[in-house]
Amino acid sequence: MLKRILLPLAGLGLALLLWGAGVAALERSTPIAAAFAPARAALALAELVQGRDIWLHIWLSLQRVAVGLGLAAVLGVPLGVLVATSKNFAGGAMPLFQLLRMVSPLSWMPLAVMVLGVGDAPVYFLLAFAAVWPILLNTAAGVGRLDPNWLLLARSLSATRSETVLRVILPGITADILTGVRLAIGIIWIVLVPAEMLGVSAGIGYFILDTRDRLAYSELMAAIILIGGLGFLLDYLARAAHARWLHVSN
């Protein structure tokens, strides 16, 4: 137990030392680099979390993540089930899905703004586009790993297709869906910051641009630390939900 605590702390301590050494080396040729020092970033972070503005940005960003993730799940889970249960659909759709999956979500920025305008709508689109693929693929993989006897039992009981999906397939692949959601959260959190540079007036991405424009580099570093911490928390919650489901289902 002690080792599990000390090893992460040692890794963080080493990262802080390297960060400080890097800033000190840069400061000789670029004096402004001093604003990025760990101590100044820590002070800026303490000031940020004591104010109310940053929490508004965080709240709006988390709302966008929730909407984007929800849209991705609404699309990804049914499509994943359809891919795994229909060979004709899989043969026609999977090449297209694989092609789209390899396109960076950020490359859709100009088109998203052109079609949806500025504001939350293009952000939702970019986040959903980024998150749908791991959910879709993990759902399909989960259906492929289901015990065929479950499906045979459902057919022998004259279950309809919708009953089979709702009462046999989805409960049997919940762990796979949660794995896809966890992967989607990691991707969506990375895409969030540049996506929020699309004309919105609040959010973590907007705050990053604002600190740059104000030359508030210590706040910029503090915001980067905050983004990492929030992302870690979201991943932890996703892992906890996945582990809890596995414990309950077993």
TrEMBL record:
Superkingdom as given in the UniProt entry: Bacteria
InterPro entries referenced in this protein's UniProt entry, alphabetically: MetI-like, MetI-like_sf
Positions of transmembrane segments: 65-84, 96-117, 123-143, 187-208, 220-238
Pfam families according to UniProt: BPD_transp_1
Principal place of residence: membrane
Domain annotation ABC transmembrane type-1: ranges: 58-238
Keywords: Cell membrane, Membrane, Transmembrane, Transmembrane helix, Transport
Compartments, record wording: Cell membrane
Membrane association type: Multi-pass membrane protein
Family classification: Belongs to the binding-protein-dependent transport system permease family.
Name of the protein in its database record: ABC transporter permease
